[in-house]
Amino acid sequence: MRDILWIVQNTLRVTFRKKKNILLYLFMPLIGIFIALMAYGGDQKMILHVGVVNQDKAEITADTIQFLAGLENVKITELEAGQVQEEIVSGKLDSVITFEKGYSDSVLAGRPDHIQLTSIKGAQVTGFVKSYLYQYIDNISTISRAADGNQQTFQQMYQDYQQSSFQLSTHSLADTSRNKNMTTQTIGFLIMIMLISASNLSEIILLEKEKRTYFRLLSTPINARKYLLANVLVNMLVMTVQVAVTLTIMKSVFHIGLNMSYWEAAVVMLLFSMIAVGLSLVLISFSKSRSAANALQNLIITPTVMLSGCFWPVEVMPTTLQKIANFLPQRWTLDTLTKLQEGHAFSELSLNLLILFAFAAAFFLIAVYKFSRNKTTENFV
Amino acid sequence: MNVLEIKNVTKKFADFIAVDNMSLAVAEGEIFGFLGANGAGKSTTINMIAGLLRCNDGIISILGKNSAKHSRFAKMNLGMVPQDLAIYEDMTAYENVKFFAGLYGLRGAELHDLVVEALEFVGLQDKHKSYPNSFSGGMKRRLNIACAIAHRPKLIIMDEPTVGIDPQSRNYILNSVKKLNEMGCTIIYTSHYMEEVEEICSRIAIIDHGKIIAEGTKEQLKSLITNTKDLWIEVKSSENLNIQAIKEIPGVEAVSIEEYFIKINSDTGVNNLNKIIEHLINNGIEIRGLQEKAPNLETVFLTLTGRNLRDQ
């Protein structure tokens, strides 16, 4: 074990002496966080800028405008009719509501009319205002119909409505979907970086063979098994740091809620790191040179990462591709994390964890088998 | 005591027999030379001694212990100077030697002292902080040696340690080999440079087609061919020379060409000088000089194997 640790220590020292490796192995995983922040971040509390043109000047119209102004996410600006087009086109206002003359009377008559909503931003903007405004107008119309034309009764009911003793209090609910999306995006990117890191670190084996230091190493008390184990340890150490740094920075610096425990996420990702090391060893065992290994890496890693939903949800892909994704370890890793986010206990996910273990074991076995078959003169003499 | 014993060792690669029932013993304190053309089985033998290859048959013992069964013991007592430079370009000279010496379990002050000693031995102490990419070919070769000797092995295998370097570095390395031997190391030395082997090796084995075809001191090897003599004929040009035709002249054992010299190994009992000269003149080859020399190691090799050491 002492000599294995000696190789691990030396490999880490030589690897991290190069600044580009520090960037690649430690800072690259954080890029996923920035991408997620750009994609899903920003102020969630959207303020709608609504212009109001009051051509009616009646009490009910004034009350309606006041109601709109009282809405939490709406900012009201009073305008003249001539300003509407300019304000809308310039984008200063999201929409403009014009209360034409006769609006108040139409509401009182129980047939609301003479109100216009102008916007060029579509239902995304108008839907919110419409839903609140129409409900308010409908209430007043209903009161009017209930008063059946009696002005005094209407006034009484209308005042009671305005000064109603019950109060509606609103509470904003946290949007967990945003955090879930950001976590998935970040972890997806981390998965890709882990696969690339593992391949690069395993490529050291091929580099040592090409530079012939591998054969000198084998003439010392180190044997091929110990050397391979040292490489796996280096890989696992680097990926443990990548996982820890990414999750910690996500949680503590950017305050992105994982929607699962830190340790559960870390365990799943460390399980994936075993898969990444296993896969990288398979790629190396099938390559005779670093260029061949790089070509295999490009052929395998990038497409599988895309297929498995690391960059976008698998649900947006055709059914056939979704079925293919089920054969990829990245998919099962993301699926396990999603289930944890949905509130499943770790113990309920034994099938997922078993499948992840199976992937890791299968990759390691293939690599070991292939390495043991590689004892040709070309490799050793 | 024998530091190395090889008994009936065979190594096959599929149908090809690289080493064929080879046996030899290297005693403590020897510089043992391995001579063989490319593909003769020399490197395979060395790789089996170093533990890089397993033999199909036979036993290799290092310091009296079967190296297959006591692999760690064998490797702890062995230092390997490979033919290809096996050093890390992104580690300083000191770090290179320290890393390899550390694989033998050395740590702390002892490790530091041995690394410094090894670097001093190969004359690289003042370059200990430099990276190999700033070294000349000779300096890299010396560092290659330092990496193999820092842990003070009893047996050092040097596989072509002087390939592609300047004469000054070559002399330095040859003197280092002698010094290591004086310090008590047993050395197995292979080289394509016959004069190196002749200069430093106390015993030599000639390997051909996976077998040792001759073994002994250089004098013993030369005595194997006392019935032959070497004729060195200096010519203006050897362009029109038909080697096969000369070989057919009675008494001629072997012919080789080295720049402007035609080297003919011939039976001392046959007077064929006139026929050789006549053949050369008839073929328009201008003779500039002629001398008869006692056979050297190269002649021995050529006579025994029928091929030049540098033949592919």
TrEMBL record, chain A:
Entry's Gene Ontology molecular function annotations: ABC-type transporter activity
InterPro entries: ABC-2_transporter_component, ABC2_TM, ABC2_TM_bact-type, ABC_2_transport
Coiled coil: none
Superkingdom of the organism of origin: Bacteria
TM ranges: 21-40, 187-207, 228-250, 262-284, 296-314, 349-369
Main location: membrane
ABC transmembrane type-2 domain boundaries: 151-374
A Pfam family per the record: ABC2_membrane_3
A GO CC term attached to the entry: ATP-binding cassette (ABC) transporter complex
Keyword flag Glycosyltransferase: no
This protein's UniProt keywords: Cell membrane, Membrane, Transmembrane, Transmembrane helix, Transport
Keyword Mitochondrion: no
Compartments where found: Cell membrane
Its membrane topology: Multi-pass membrane protein
Family, per entry: Belongs to the ABC-2 integral membrane protein family.
UniProt protein name: Transport permease protein
The organism of origin for this protein: Neobacillus rhizophilus
UniProtKB/TrEMBL annotation, chain B:
Pfam families: ABC_tran
Top-level taxon in the UniProt lineage: Bacteria
PROSITE patterns named among the record's database cross-references: ABC_TRANSPORTER_1 (PS00211), ABC_TRANSPORTER_2 (PS50893)
Nucleotide-binding among keywords: yes
Designated name of the protein: ABC transporter ATP-binding protein
Organism of provenance: Neobacillus rhizophilus
Keyword Phosphoprotein listed: no
Signal peptide: none
InterPro entries: AAA+_ATPase, ABC_transporter-like_ATP-bd, ABC_transporter-like_CS, P-loop_NTPase
ABC transporter domain residues: 4-234
GO MF terms, alphabetically ordered: ATP binding; ATP hydrolysis activity
SUPFAM superfamilies associated with the record: P-loop containing nucleoside triphosphate hydrolases
Keywords assigned: ATP-binding, Nucleotide-binding
